[in-house]
Each structure stands twice: as structure tokens, then as C-alpha cells.
Design a protein that fits this description.
The protein is an alpha/beta fold and 399 residues long. The protein contains 14 helices and 14 strands.
Length: 399
């Protein structure tokens, strides 16, 4: 056996041992192939399931106008952008999308990234360095955490939504060049909203910059659907608004919206922007169309919030402990990894697709179902889910 073969065998043995450890802890994940989808219905392993696990909050991923926009763009531009934005990949659709994002977010400018993850990592790394201080919520998304690590700034994590703790961590603000305060707008696993008004006041008081990751708020909150900044009446007070095009917008990609100076700096310093091939034009056009649909179709948001209220009210009637709030993210915590996996499997057997969420995505001991609601769901689908959840909950409680 050659030396390289021995190395591969040794490597695989080590990796298999690690995988076995994940399996024993209930933390090993496997990809489940979806063979077909129609609105809130998916087909997995030949079975028709109602999905309550998607981030497609407004049901736009299969909207006829978005499909048409993408199809026409393929004919005009082909399938790929062929380069990074700073070389050959800066196409007319990219700039039109960014203008649409800026208008949608009520900012001077915007820059699109290949994903929300890339937007967060790139923006934080570009804005903060060794001379700076970052304050980050303990339940912030992994992309925000990784951006903080890459920045090499001093990073202090504050207790979730605890603005008093934020203030305590600011006693040596004068020792740092910049202060960057970072939070999710809607927390992706708990569904609660950040205390943005308090954070904006603290940022003003301490000469800091507030950055809001509004991935799960964009398209869902605000009078025009622009997100949590609008929802809280803070337009013009949050200098860095990040969002994705892959959740309520039903497409893919990420963005940062703010001042012209902010956007110009990110185009020059955000490594995930500089060194990534630009988004395909078909994706860009579908994303731009989603902003038009959101702005012109408040009935979609109304339907979403009707569905959220119906499901949350039903859970309360059943005395199923779900986090309070009004977001379409509804966590039902079961504690152990194995319990969450078991409940998810029982729901699948009953015709529902709600994957179990386990560490490291959530803290140990808080494994859960992350139920997400869409404007696509019907009253009958919501009522059917409540019926099954009630039966399962009674079964779990009696053990």
C-alpha cells in the first residue's frame, strides 16, 4: 500500500470516529432530497408532505412573475456572470438590483453579495479591525459570529437582548477607534425581535455604529415590508442594514444597505465581495422582481400574519409552550436532541416536514422544532398541523 493510501485510510478512520460521536450525541445531520415542490407542499422519498420548515415566508420562490423574470434574463444574459464584480462580472442587472434594494430599504445605496453569509462576513471584516470594539448579541447568526472573528477586533458578547449588559460592556469605549454594535433584527432560531430602539439610543450615546442583520425581517415587517428598522420607526438611525434575498424574497443572495460611503468602502474592502464571482443575472432579476412584488402586494404580508396568528393562537389553546411574539418563526423546544428528532419523525409520518434543530445551531439542552409559517399555507393546513401537534404533545406528556 502506498504512503498516500495509508494517509487516506488513517484520515478516514479518524473522520469516521468523529462522525460516530456526532451520531451518538444525536447531532449528525443528513441531507434529505426534495424531489418536487409546489407552494408549501414537498415530495420527499416519494411522500407528499406539508412543509412548515421553509424560510419562503411570502411564498415568492415559485411566483409566476419571478420565474418569468429569471427566464427572460437567461435569454438576455446567459446562465452566469463570468467574473467578480470588480473584473468582468458587473452587469447592468446587478446595478439595477442594488438601486432597487436602496429604494426598498430607504437608504442612499446598497451592494449585493452572493449570499447573506458572505454579506455579514465581508461587511464586518471590512468595517472593524484590531483597534475596534464589537458588541454582539449571544444569539446572533453564525455568519455574524464568523465575521466578528475574522475582523480581529475586540469582541464582547452580551446576554441575549440585554441592553443593560450592553451598557456595562461600554465602560472603556474611549479606548477603541470604532464601536460596532451588531444584532439580528429577528433572531433566526427563536423568532423574537431585537430591542432596536434601545440599541440605536446606545449607539448614538456612545458614538457607535449599529448593524442590523434583517435576514428574517426583510419582507415581513414594516409598513412597506422593508424590515424591522422600518417596523420600529428607526429609518435614518441604523447606518448598516444587512439582508438576504433568499428568505421572504424567494431568490438567493445577500446585501448591505446604507450610505454611499459605506457601500463604496465595502466594494473596496469586503473580501467576500471582491473575490467572489457575481450572482448569476437570472437570480438577480428574480430578486429585483421580488422587491416589486413585496412593495405592491401588502396582501401577501397580511396573509402571512393571519397565518402566524392562527398557528400561535392554536398552540396557546393546546398549551404547547412556544415562544411569544408575532414572527413567522415559532420555536417549540423539547430539550434533548433525541426528543426533537423523535417529534420531527412523528410529524413526518403524519405528513408534515419540520426538521429538528439541534446544537451547535442552538445551545445544548434547547433542541427544538423550528416551525415556520408562510403566506402559502392554508387555514386547513395550519389546523391539521395543530391537531397532530396536540396528539403528539399529549403522548409526550403522558410518558
Amino acid at each position: 500500500m502506498s504512503g498516500s493510501a495509508v494517509s487516506v485510510t488513517t484520515m478516514d478512520s479518524s473522520l469516521d470516529e468523529e462522525l460516530e460521536g456526532l451520531s451518538a450525541a444525536g447531532r449528525r445531520r443528513r441531507l434529505r432530497r426534495i424531489d418536487k415542490k409546489e407552494g408549501s407542499i414537498v415530495w420527499i422519498d416519494g411522500r407528499r408532505l406539508i412543509s412548515f420548515g421553509s424560510n419562503d415566508y411570502l411564498g415568492l420562490s415559485q411566483h409566476a412573475r419571478m420565474i418569468a423574470a429569471a427566464s427572460l434574463s437567461i435569454l438576455d444574459w446567459g446562465s452566469g456572470s463570468t467574473g467578480s464584480r470588480l473584473t468582468t462580472g458587473n452587469l447592468c442587472p446587478h446595478e439595477e438590483l442594488e438601486a432597487a434594494i436602496a429604494a426598498f430599504k430607504h437608504t442612499q445605496s446598497a451592494v449585493a453579495f452572493t449570499s447573506g453569509y458572505a454579506a455579514n462576513v465581508g461587511a464586518i471584516q471590512a468595517l472593524a479591525g484590531e483597534e475596534d470594539l464589537i458588541l454582539s448579541d449571544s444569539l446572533n447568526h453564525a455568519s455574524l459570529i464568523d465575521g466578528c472573528r475574522l475582523s480581529r477586533a475586540t469582541v464582547r458578547v452580551y446576554s441575549h437582548n440585554d441592553t443593560g449588559h450592553v451598557r456595562d460592556l461600554l465602560n472603556d469605549r474611549s479606548n477603541f477607534r470604532r464601536l460596532l454594535m451588531i444584532t439580528d433584527g429577528v433572531f433566526s432560531m427563536d423568532g423574537d425581535l431585537a430591542r432596536l430602539p434601545d440599541l440605536a439610543d446606545l449607539a448614538d450615546e456612545c458614538d457607535g455604529w449599529l448593524m442590523v442583520d434583517d435576514a428574517h425581517g426583510t419582507g415581513v415587517y414594516g409598513e412597506s415590508g422593508s424590515g424591522t428598522v422600518e417596523h420600529f420607526g428607526l429609518l435614518g438611525r441604523v447606518p448598516i442594514q444587512m439582508g438576504t434575498l433568499s428568505k421572504a424574497c424567494g431568490s438567493v443572495g445577500g446585501f448591505v444597505a446604507g450610505s454611499r460611503s459605506l457601500v463604496e468602502l465595502l466594494k473596496n474592502k469586503a473580501r467576500s465581495f471582491i473575490y467572489s464571482t457575481a450572482l448569476p443575472p437570472a437570480v438577480v432579476e428574480s430578486a429585483r422582481m421580488s422587491l416589486e412584488i413585496i412593495a405592491s402586494s401588502p396582501s401577501l404580508r397580511a396573509r402571512l400574519h393571519h397565518n402566524v396568528k392562527r398557528l400561535r393562537t392554536g398552540l396557546n389553546i393546546l398549551a404547547i409552550d412556544a415562544a411569544a411574539g408575532d414572527s413567522p418563526i415559532i420555536p417549540v423546544i423539547y430539550g434533548s436532541e433525541m426528543a426533537a428528532i423523535s417529534i420531527s419523525k412523528q410529524l413526518e409520518e403524519a405528513g408534515f416536514w419540520i426538521p429538528a434543530i439541534r446544537p451547535p445551531t442552538v445551545p445544548p439542552g434547547t433542541s427544538r422544532l423550528r416551525i415556520t409559517v408562510s403566506a402559502d399555507h392554508t387555514d386547513d393546513q395550519i389546523d391539521a398541523l395543530l391537531k397532530v401537534l396536540g396528539e403528539i404533545d399529549k403522548s409526550v406528556s403522558s410518558k
